[in-house]
Please model this.
Amino acid sequence: MTQNDASWTERALRALSEAGFRSGGGRRQVVDLLGEEDCALTALEIDRRLPSVGRATVYRALEQLEALGLIQRVDVKGDAAGFERVDPGGRHHHHIVCQQCGRVVAFEDDRLEQAIIALGTRPDFTVSSHEVTLRGECASCGLQSS
Amino acid sequence: MTQNDASWTERALRALSEAGFRSGGGRRQVVDLLGEEDCALTALEIDRRLPSVGRATVYRALEQLEALGLIQRVDVKGDAAGFERVDPGGRHHHHIVCQQCGRVVAFEDDRLEQAIIALGTRPDFTVSSHEVTLRGECASCGLQSS
DNA sequence: ATCTGTGCAAATAGTTTGCATCCTC
DNA sequence: GAGGATGCAAACTATTTGCACAGAT
Model:
């Protein structure tokens, strides 16, 4: 996935510059990290992994990236919001979360996507994105409680 | 829906009592309110609507009701967690959220449910619930920005 | 030189916890 | 009477904002 990641990072940096943002060091590090990571990170996780970047900068960068459609917010981390990159071509995954240990696993399913696309044509709403979250118990947690 | 709501309220009160909880006044009001409401409420909305009930009691009641499977948490209210009752018979809805004004509309779709049920049979996870959220722009917000 | 980006610290919003008291069983 | 239920206030966690300064253009 390294090649794909690199392309997201490039695309993000280009989009930021086209949107008139200057290229400071803090946001750049956030972009690099999000480009390397395949699944959701919380703002605080990013802040912890980038000790030289201020917390406010992390939140501001995430806000800007989300507004440009480069990342999306997902609800898989409990209290905190998770953020993950939006890859080009509409290809994306959804999440299954263990309610015991919090483990998050990604999955893709064409049939599910078809069903959701069919739902997207509504008179009262223009649907631009969707999120599916499955919740349950992962195999290792299941063993322990039995 | 009045009859259905009443039955959820009854069922919830019975389940609480069977679980060994005493019948205090605060939790009772929370249960009544959730039984009357068809879609998600946040803890603070409930707290505001029940001035005689302490905030901590609201959160504690929600925690207990969720643990008993009587309500579920949904991510449609932005920062705050939304809670809505779980109706018997597995019948349930999902949500579409306007990213401009925050309006939430519920919908049901059999094809979507079928696709998700098919996904539920996984070796590594026992899926017990799922949540689908569509995001976009509602008709009235769309008019204003055009 | 100008004006954006950044870090720090203070302020908010949502949620949880400690504790004394009230009330159910 | 004993122990759970409740309200209030303090504590916490996640997020946002104010502000002075560094750095990009």
